[in-house]
Amino acid sequence: MFKFFSESAGNDPKDFGKGGNYTDSSIKVLEGLEAVRERPGMYIGSTDSKGLHHLIWEVLDNSVDEVLAGHADEVVLTLKPNHVISISDNGRGIPTGINPQTNISNLITVFTILHAGGKFDNNSYKTSGGLHGVGSTCVNALSEFMEITVCRNGEEHFVSFKNGGKIDKEPTLVSQVPAERTGTKVTWKPDFSIFDKSDYDVELIETRLERLAYLNKGKRFVFDNQISNEVKEFFFKEGISDWVTNLNHSRKAINDVIFLKEDGTVKNRRTPDVQNSISISCAFQYTLGDAPIVYSFCNNIYTASGGTHLESFKDGLLSCIRERSLEAKLIKESVDILKSDILAGLTAIVSLNYSNPEYSGQTKEVLSNIEIKSFIREKVEELFGRFLEENTDQCKAILQRVDQERNLRLKVEMARQTDRKLALEGFMSFAGKLADCTTKSVDFSELYVVEGDSAGGSAKSARNREYQAILPIKGKLLNVWKKTNTSSIVENEEIKSLISSIGCAYGDKFDREKLRYNKIIIMTDADVDGSHIRILLLTFIYRFMRPLIEEGHVYIAQPPLYRAFTNKEVVYLFDDKKKDEFMADKGKSKSWEISRFKGLGEMSPEQLWQTTMNPEERIICKVTVEDMEQVTGIFDDLMGKKVHPRTEFILANYSNIRNLDI
């Protein structure tokens, strides 16, 4: 559901040491693959697990570009033993002749020279995900070996590299093959003298291939996992429309899935005489759910932080719904409907194919082209308007859904204007609960949200008052995922105190500038009730204060489960595995005793500080979300109103249950 990353003692920033002599010989010139191996982070971001998977995405993008160009309809990704990956497609195959610029084989040029490839030639690829031209070269530079097989023009060619891109076997004509047999196959093993050794995330790879199948309607993506001897095929006849349907499997839809598509050209912003090809595809549906589920892509690349294509889609929806709402006399002025009103309950996929994309960075998370805005906005407004005209019943349902959200927003705003208790008197009403810290520096302050008054009392005594605040939470919070009435949620006393303590409001009024603490640390008992309270808190934060998670402000405290002690020594053990290891090592000695903490309230303030609150000793886990679609789907299944998805989940996972309090 969430990813937890540990932050333990020793992570505080330290001063950098002074450098040595800075002379003429200090200036280093790194060329080609040497530069990639020397500074891999500049090219792929990191050398941890994320960087390891980045190699896969780089090669996969090249095959997907053949799909985008209409020359391939199948891509196969094979996971082999010993961290070997192979990706093949049935596209045109990389040209195998002599490159006129480098005077060497194109098979060597493409895999050894940075910024070499067909993506810079508009006649070869109209749109492409791999526009930086460093993908294949980087993978080669960072691999123990790489092998390439190409079928093209009735011939099969082979070339291989080793030790970071050094030629192992020169390009060779292997055999004659049928002319219709075409494509490229790339096989490599990462160099673990550069990367941290870790296993591939099979679920992450499957998700990537599934998304590509959704985005490329009628194309087949295959994952051949030779480690588990499983083969999975992803193929969706209706593409992103099928995706929207599947995303809404546990949400009640109020209209059919709407699919809009338009092709055209727009003027190049820097060279107005040049026309760039553009194709926008959107699939969306309104539901009775609250939180929107919206994903955007450009040339099959997930733009996690959106960009001009996504905002233009929203602007087109907003303009169209405003116009129809005025005609239906639901509003008096178009400005009465805000963008937040039309997003509530919306599930949407926005996919742009564009020949000249520009991003805010190499990670391609935000599309920044401004020349595409009017094309997308106008086409969405026109095509959506046509749908509403032709489907009057569905038009009425959508307009009523938006109007319901608008009225709810107005009621909440009126409550805020007429009753300032949440911000003023409300702060005083919970002041006895919140034990605030003395520092005014947000960067160094921490808010511990603690289960119950008993643990709250120990935490208040244990804390460092200068930078640690304590907020006890009584009982269990509301399950806000089941609730649709926002005003009733925020009137709950525990939630009200949490909102006021954190300080940055909630929902569309969230203001990160008003955040009062850099770390919000959830500290609950290590039992079933504690886990339930923790997930209820995370559910509230995810739904109403999601930027806190996205920006890395939410943490989970890790109190120890066991205390091992003698007359002279104490050791804290944080889980059963650590306890078992300890017992295997020292448990034979009769001098050691082990006790299990039943709750935070059992710990003395000294123990709580030493194990769970002291930055020099504690372990806290940062909460992050890597896949918003997956997390939202799990919240729908486990925290939503429908019982059946929870039953299925329990039946599928009951064998993994540990530490039940029975």
UniProtKB/TrEMBL annotation:
<keyword id="KW-0238">DNA-binding</keyword>
<dbReference type="InterPro" id="IPR013759">
    <property type="entry name" value="Topo_IIA_B_C"/>
</dbReference>
<dbReference type="GO" id="GO:0034335">
    <property type="term" value="F:DNA negative supercoiling activity"/>
</dbReference>
<keyword id="KW-0460">Magnesium</keyword>
<dbReference type="InterPro" id="IPR002288">
    <property type="entry name" value="DNA_gyrase_B_C"/>
</dbReference>
<dbReference type="InterPro" id="IPR000565">
    <property type="entry name" value="Topo_IIA_B"/>
</dbReference>
<dbReference type="InterPro" id="IPR013506">
    <property type="entry name" value="Topo_IIA_bsu_dom2"/>
</dbReference>
<keyword id="KW-0799">Topoisomerase</keyword>
<dbReference type="Pfam" id="PF00986">
    <property type="entry name" value="DNA_gyraseB_C"/>
</dbReference>
<dbReference type="InterPro" id="IPR013760">
    <property type="entry name" value="Topo_IIA-like_dom_sf"/>
</dbReference>
<dbReference type="InterPro" id="IPR020568">
    <property type="entry name" value="Ribosomal_Su5_D2-typ_SF"/>
</dbReference>
<dbReference type="Pfam" id="PF02518">
    <property type="entry name" value="HATPase_c"/>
</dbReference>
<dbReference type="InterPro" id="IPR001241">
    <property type="entry name" value="Topo_IIA"/>
</dbReference>
<dbReference type="InterPro" id="IPR014721">
    <property type="entry name" value="Ribsml_uS5_D2-typ_fold_subgr"/>
</dbReference>
<protein>
    <recommendedName>
        <fullName>DNA topoisomerase (ATP-hydrolyzing)</fullName>
        <ecNumber>5.6.2.2</ecNumber>
    </recommendedName>
</protein>
<dbReference type="InterPro" id="IPR018522">
    <property type="entry name" value="TopoIIA_CS"/>
</dbReference>
<feature type="domain" description="Toprim">
    <location>
        <begin position="445"/>
        <end position="560"/>
    </location>
</feature>
<dbReference type="InterPro" id="IPR006171">
    <property type="entry name" value="TOPRIM_dom"/>
</dbReference>
<comment type="similarity">
    <text>Belongs to the type II topoisomerase GyrB family.</text>
</comment>
<dbReference type="GO" id="GO:0003677">
    <property type="term" value="F:DNA binding"/>
</dbReference>
<dbReference type="GO" id="GO:0006265">
    <property type="term" value="P:DNA topological change"/>
</dbReference>
<dbReference type="GO" id="GO:0046872">
    <property type="term" value="F:metal ion binding"/>
</dbReference>
<dbReference type="InterPro" id="IPR036890">
    <property type="entry name" value="HATPase_C_sf"/>
</dbReference>
<keyword id="KW-0067">ATP-binding</keyword>
<keyword id="KW-0547">Nucleotide-binding</keyword>
<dbReference type="Pfam" id="PF01751">
    <property type="entry name" value="Toprim"/>
</dbReference>
<keyword id="KW-0479">Metal-binding</keyword>
<dbReference type="InterPro" id="IPR003594">
    <property type="entry name" value="HATPase_dom"/>
</dbReference>
<keyword id="KW-0413">Isomerase</keyword>
<dbReference type="Pfam" id="PF00204">
    <property type="entry name" value="DNA_gyraseB"/>
</dbReference>
<dbReference type="GO" id="GO:0005524">
    <property type="term" value="F:ATP binding"/>
</dbReference>
